[in-house]
Amino acid sequence: MSLTGLLLHLNRFKQFNVTLAAAVLEGDMGKVQECVGVYASKGAIGDVVSFIYQAEKISLPKTAATGVTFKAGDKVYFDSGAGAVSVGGSGGSFCGIALKDALFSDTTVEVELDGAPHRSA
């Protein structure tokens, strides 16, 4: 699932460049090694694009599953099968917190994205 474009609400984010193994669209979510994030532009296999893994405020695609809602403060997980975020950790990768409520009919949720792997002390 992808957005029709990248929806950054603030210009404060962290990124790195990645060489694509598959084609992506701007706003597609993905996982590069252990980092969850969003591709900043579209690209074909072999292209180098920016991958945003931290952003203070970004709209991410949410799963369309029945009953998937978010409350502000909920943990957000990346569901690689859906290419979108969901609630609950059922096999998904933690990637931030919801900043606003999102109903089951909403296609996006506003998130503080933190897709970097968290290290144990």
Structure description:
It contains no helices and nine strands. It has 121 residues and is mostly beta strands. It has one domain (7-114). Strands 1, 2, 3, 4, 5, 6, 7, 8 and 9 form a nine-stranded antiparallel sheet that branches.
Helix and strand layout, with pairings?
Blueprint: E1 7-8, E2 13-19, E3 29-32, E4 35-39, E5 48-61, E6 75-79, E7 84-86, E8 93-98, E9 108-114
Antiparallel strand pairs: 1-5, 2-5, 3-4, 4-5, 5-9, 6-7, 6-8, 8-9
Beta-strand content bin: 35-45%
User: In one word, what is the shape?
Assistant: globular
Number of domains: 1
H/E element string? EEEEEEEEE
- How helix-rich are the residues, as a percent range? under 10%
Residue stretches low in confidence (pLDDT < 50, at least 5 long) are none
Q: Helix count?
A: 0
Mean pLDDT across residues:
87
Separation of the first and last Cα atoms:
35 Å
Q: Describe the sheet with the most strands.
A: 9 strands, antiparallel
- Coarse structural class: mainly beta
Radius of gyration over C-alpha positions, nearest whole angstrom: 13 Å
The number of E-state strands comes to 9
Give the gist of this structure.
The chain has strands at residues 7-8, 13-19, 29-32, 35-39, 48-61, 75-79, 84-86, 93-98, 108-114. The chain is mostly beta strands. Strands 1, 2, 3, 4, 5, 6, 7, 8 and 9 form a nine-stranded antiparallel beta sheet that branches.
Observed structural traits:
single chain; 121 residues; mainly beta; nine-stranded antiparallel sheet; 9 strands; 44% strand
